[in-house]
Amino acid sequence: MAGFSSDSASVLPFPGRDANRLRLAIRGLEAALEEQARAMAGFRASMSELSGAVAGLKRGTEAYHHQLGKLGSRVGEAHAAARRLEDTATLWLRTQG
After folding, report:
1. DSSP 76
2. Spatial separation of the C-alpha atoms in residues 17 and 19, rounded to whole Å
3. Exposure class string for 40-61: b at 16+ Cβ within 10 A, else e
4. What confidence score (pLDDT) does residue 19 get?
5. Strand runs labelled E in the chain
6. What is the pLDDT along the chain (97 residues), one digit of tens a residue?
7. Which DSSP state fits 17?
8. C-beta separation of 47 from 38 below 8 A
9. What is the pLDDT of residue 1?
10. Which one-letter DSSP state was computed for residue 13?
11. Smallest Cα–Cα separation from 14: which of 1, 26, 25, 3?
12. Is the pTM here over 0.70, yes or no?
């Protein structure tokens, strides 16, 4: 077979007794549980990081909403001032004509 050499191949011993097989199975289970614990710790850390990012996004959105509210008020004031100016100009034009 291509890619394999006799130097890199090794034969894994098969445990002969039930106690040895049980011990090997328990070691495999322990290794799997340790890996799962590491994965869960990473998941929790990622969720914590995501929570912080979402909280920052919420603060930014709330600040943006507040600024839009202030801008809306200022636009409303500018619109009212423009209407008053238009009414004044209309009255002035009527008196001139």
Report:
1. H
2. 5
3. eeeeeeeeeeeeeeeeeeeeee
4. 81
5. none
6. 455 555 666 766 666 687 888 999 999 999 999 999 999 999 999 999 999 999 999 999 999 999 999 999 999 999 999 999 999 999 999 999 6
7. S
8. no
9. 47
10. P
11. 25
12. no
Q: Which residues contact 21 (CB under 8 A, 6 or more apart)?
A: 15
Identity of residue 44? R
What does the block give as tokens for 68?
């839009």
How far apart are the C-alpha atoms of 38 and 31, rounded to whole Å?
11
Q: How far apart are CA 75 and CA 58, in angstroms?
A: 25
CB neighbours of residue 72 within 10 Å:
10
**Can you give the pLDDT at residue 53?**
98
Report how far apart, in Å, the C-alpha atoms of 53 and of each of 13, 26, 43, 47, 58 are: 50, 40, 15, 10, 9
